[in-house]
UniProtKB/TrEMBL annotation, chain A:
The keyword Transmembrane applies. SUPFAM superfamilies: Fumarate reductase respiratory complex transmembrane subunits. Keywords: Membrane, Transmembrane, Transmembrane helix. The keyword Nucleus does not apply. GO terms for cellular component: membrane. This is Succinate dehydrogenase / fumarate reductase cytochrome b subunit. NCBIfam families: sdhC_b558_fam. The chain crosses the membrane at residues 16-39, 59-80, 112-131, 159-181, 202-224.
UniProtKB/TrEMBL annotation, chain B:
GO terms for biological process: aerobic respiration; respiratory electron transport chain. One of its GO terms (molecular function) is electron transfer activity. SUPFAM superfamilies: 2Fe-2S ferredoxin-like (SSF54292), alpha-helical ferredoxin (SSF46548). The lineage of its organism: Bacteria, Pseudomonadati, Bacteroidota, Sphingobacteriia, Sphingobacteriales. InterPro entries: 2Fe-2S_ferredoxin-like_sf, 2Fe2S_fd_BS, 4Fe4S_Fe-S-bd, Beta-grasp_dom_sf, Helical_ferredxn, SDH/FRD_Iron-Sulfur, Succ_DH/fum_Rdtase_N. This is Succinate dehydrogenase / fumarate reductase iron-sulfur subunit. Its cofactor is [2Fe-2S] cluster; [3Fe-4S] cluster. Residues 155-185 form the 4Fe-4S ferredoxin-type domain. Belongs to the succinate dehydrogenase/fumarate reductase iron-sulfur protein family. It comes from Pedobacter rhizosphaerae. Pfam families: Fer2_3 (PF13085), Fer4_8 (PF13183).
Length: 226, 256
């Protein structure tokens, strides 16, 4: 047996995986949000398509995509394992449990929020990722780049897609509000000089990322993006 | 806060043993003084039950001054009731109002099986301590003061962790029935002091392994444990335990 023993199978080790993959996904969202926000240049998606083309053609990004999917799957499977174990740890439930007296509702609902995000993610991947990687983007823009912007503009004409995306971003916001600071605590980064910074950066990050993402389908649907 | 005596309805968990199913049973109590402690109110109820020839309600209690960690009631959805930083024995009936209905349940966790009524078996905690919550030296007589210089901040943090009375409120309130606050306090009180250093990284691995073996859940950092702990044990202890665990697994060359 290796010297690492039960490093990742113990309760704390499993939490390390949640925290590390969670922070990795936090970094991914920054890149994703930045590239997508290029649609706000209002130049018919030309700048956005340059960004999308770079992301699709750069081999480092493509290798990173594999790491991203592995990280995402690890986050989901580990969460499932932990949730099942946690349910077994309390077989008889309380008749009365005043959770709101001692903790935030979203910190107690990470599984629910995560499940909503997973449902969104399946729709989201089939909307864009499957199109750009497999079925193919039908048109090209003035620069000769595949016109992913056109796919986006068309997808967000559907009000139900816009509503789903907006609701998912509310889930994302609450998921991050707990998850961001929680990852640092899990990894042992609790320090009186930094706790305040981690907490406020976490809150700002969660709100800004979710607002920016939600603004995209809403702005396209409202005809504000040209 | 009420001044006159009050009438209450209690819904108390009654369970013969851990093989049988339990249920909440209603009891009416009249003329309860607001100056009584919660446990004294139970004494009154039990006296009435005994006088009627009924089986009294079994509940854990010992010192009744908030230091032994024996009392363990889950009152209206919160361990040790509605007040912060007190145990059930330090909770007084003036925290309730005339006509209130109070639901009292035992700690609920797979690792804390019900013995009878409101009493649960918390020996899982003892086994976690036995797995490494000690120092293997012959301590002998007390040394001269300041023989071992310990920074004040360090000594204070160790003392705050050592304030844990092992009541199990953290496990009871945690949505995952996780024991991490308890285990991390018992690890920290030694990890922060020089006497605890030789076994520091063995200790964290052994105690965490025992905690997992007992069937406690996993921490999701909701912070409910810290909020409900009658001794105000801090979440910092859990972060310290996680750090020590990572050091033990990934940096220390010693394997156990």
């Amino acid at each position: 047996m290796s010297g690492f023993g039960n490093a990742f199978s113990s309760s704390i080790g499993k939490k390390f995986i949640m925290g590390i993959t969670g922070l990795f996904l936090v970094l991914f969202l920054i890149v994703h949000c930045f590239i997508n926000a290029l649609i706000f240049f209002n130049d018919g998606g030309l700048t956005f398509n340059i960004g999308a083309h770079f992301m699709a053609s750069n081999w480092i990004i493509r290798a990173g995509e594999i790491v991203l999917f592995v990280g995402l799957l690890a986050h989901i499977f580990q969460a499932l394992r932990l949730t099942l174990q946690n349910q077994k740890a309390r077989p008889v439930k309380y008749a009365v449990n005043a959770g709101e007296a001692n903790s935030k509702w979203y910190s107690r609902s990470m599984g629910l929020l995560g499940t909503l995000l997973l449902i969104f993610l399946i729709v989201h991947l089939s909307n864009f990722w499957v199109v750009s990687r497999f079925t193919g983007i039908p048109t090209v823009d003035a620069n000769g780049h595949e016109d992913l912007y056109a796919v986006m503009a068309l997808t967000f004409q559907n009000i139900w897609i816009v509503i789903l995306y907006t609701l998912a971003m509310i889930s994302l916001c609450y998921h991050l509000l707990h998850g961001f600071a929680s990852a640092f605590q899990t990894l042992g980064w609790n320090h009186s000089k930094y706790n305040g910074i981690i907490k406020s950066v976490g809150v700002w990050y969660s709100i800004l990322i979710s607002l920016l993402f939600a603004a995209m389908p809403i702005a396209v649907y409202a005809g504000l993006i040209h | 806060m009420s001044t006159g005596n009050m009438n209450l309805t209690l819904k108390v968990w009654r369970q013969k043993n851990n093989k049988t199913k339990g249920a909440l049973v209603d009891y009416k109590l009249a003329d309860i003084s607001p100056d009584m402690s919660f446990l004294e109110m139970f004494d009154v109820l039990n006296e009435q039950l005994i006088n009627k020839g009924d089986e009294p309600i079994v509940f854990d209690h010992d010192c009744r001054e908030g230091i032994c960690g024996m009392c363990s009631m889950f009152i209206n959805g919160r361990p040790h009731g509605p007040k912060d930083l007190v145990t059930t024995c330090q909770l007084h009936m003036r925290s309730f109002k005339d006509g209130d209905t109070i639901v009292v349940e035992p700690w609920r966790a797979a690792a804390f099986p019900v013995v009878k009524d409101l009493t649960v078996d918390r020996s899982a905690f003892d086994r976690v301590i036995a797995a490494g919550g000690f120092i293997s030296v012959n301590t002998g007589n007390a040394q001269d003061a300041n023989n071992l210089p310990i920074p004040k901040m360090q000594a204070d943090a160790a003392f705050e962790a050592a304030a844990c009375i092992g009541c199990g409120a953290c496990v009871a309130t945690c949505k995952n029935a996780s024991a991490m606050l308890f285990v991390s306090a018992k690890i920290s009180q030694l990890a922060l002091l020089p006497q605890g250093q030789p076994e520091r990284y063995r200790r964290v691995q052994s105690m965490v392994a025992q905690m997992d073996a007992e069937g406690f859940g996993n921490c999701t950092n909701t912070g409910a444990c810290e909020a409900e702990c009658p001794k105000g044990i801090s979440l910092e202890n859990i972060a310290r335990m996680n750090r020590d665990f990572a050091s033990a697994k990934f940096i220390s060359e010693e394997t156990i």
